[in-house]
UniProtKB/TrEMBL annotation:
Matches recorded under NCBIfam families: PRK13946.1
UniProt-annotated binding residues for ATP: 34-39, 140
The species this protein was found in: Paracoccus haeundaensis
InterPro entries: P-loop_NTPase, Shikimate/glucono_kinase, Shikimate_kinase/TSH1
Enzyme Commission code: 2.7.1.71
Cofactor(s) this protein cannot do without: Mg(2+)
Residues engaged in binding Mg(2+): 38
Enzymatic class: transferase
Name this protein carries in UniProt: Shikimate kinase
Subcellular location per the Swiss-Prot or TrEMBL entry: Cytoplasm
Its biological purpose: Catalyzes the specific phosphorylation of the 3-hydroxyl group of shikimic acid using ATP as a cosubstrate.
Lineage: Bacteria, Pseudomonadati, Pseudomonadota, Alphaproteobacteria, Rhodobacterales
Molecular function via GO: ATP binding; magnesium ion binding; shikimate kinase activity
A GO cellular component annotation in the UniProt record: cytosol
UniProt KW keywords: Amino-acid biosynthesis, Aromatic amino acid biosynthesis, ATP-binding, Cytoplasm, Kinase, Magnesium, Metal-binding, Nucleotide-binding, Transferase
Amino acid sequence: MAISERSRHSVTRLTGGRMTQVLTRHIVLIGMMGAGKTAIGSELARRLRVPFTDSDAEIEAAAAMSISEIFARDGEAFFRAREAQVLSRLLAGAPGVVSTGGGAWMRPENRQIIGERGLSVWLNCSPETLWARVRQRPTRPLLQTADPKGTLLRLLAERSPVYALADLEFVSRAGDTIEATATRLIAELTAAHPTLTQEKP
Ligand SMILES: Nc1ncnc2c1ncn2[C@@H]1O[C@H](COP(=O)(O)OP(=O)(O)O)[C@@H](O)[C@H]1O
Ligand SMILES: O=C(O)C1=C[C@@H](OP(=O)(O)O)[C@@H](O)[C@H](O)C1
Ligand SMILES: [Mg+2]
């Protein structure tokens, strides 16, 4: 880069011409297994240039075991206790995008802490799309049943009224790419919650 270009660039920064968007609270994605919380959350954070964390990934890293192994060895109650601890640690950090596991929002104490430190977004999705995404993968222990599709639909029916308590419901469309979905989510989030981002010099 020529010196003149470099100095012009610095002047722009010094005069505040370059503003950075910062988040005022965490964006917390909730919703069913396969809705895309992990995939969309990661893309959303990349686009907003904020940290991304996923509660399942944090639990796996701390335990050095997969979610399936934790369920098999220590049981669901143990997993749920770790999940609550991890969420409260993640939410205490600098605002970013936090993707939760599908059951996290069911616990009142998790809803409470998410409400205090973040904006909850229910990533909703049709049952057909959920099933198409989860059916190939053996990574979700709750679906290791004789009738995994029936289990998925039952969980969806039980959980939907509780997911509906989120600050925002966002419907993910089956034919859209992850990138297009993130673009639309950013637009809906900033329209519905204008104070979510703030410009910082
Ligand atoms: N438009 C889309 N939105 C979200 N996920 C998508 C989309 N298209 C394909 N996928 C794939 O579907 C899967 C969604 O799973 P994941 O992000 O793990 O969901 P969750 O964390 O909600 O269980 C990923 O493998 C992702 O790559
Ligand atoms: O719905 C649930 O109770 C679960 C969802 C999973 O996360 P994803 O929703 O990211 O698949 C994972 O936390 C665990 O298998 C339990
Ligand atoms: Mg996930």
